[in-house]
Write a structure and sequence with these properties.
Layout lengths: L1 H21 L2 H41 L1
Amino acid sequence: MAARRTLKARLVARRALKSFWTDQSGATAVELGILVGIICVMLITALGALGGNLNGLFTKLSDKFA
């Protein structure tokens, strides 16, 4: 009787492990997170490089409307 339980437990564990191994949904979320992170870094870098120019542009526009 105990041998049957251990065999059954092994089969259940094997099925669960196989299901976990073939599941791709977590990988997709990680890839999406990496892409979002890369895009954020690119935007921060671009805005940092253009920051002085944008500040001057908004100052000129502000002076024209004032």
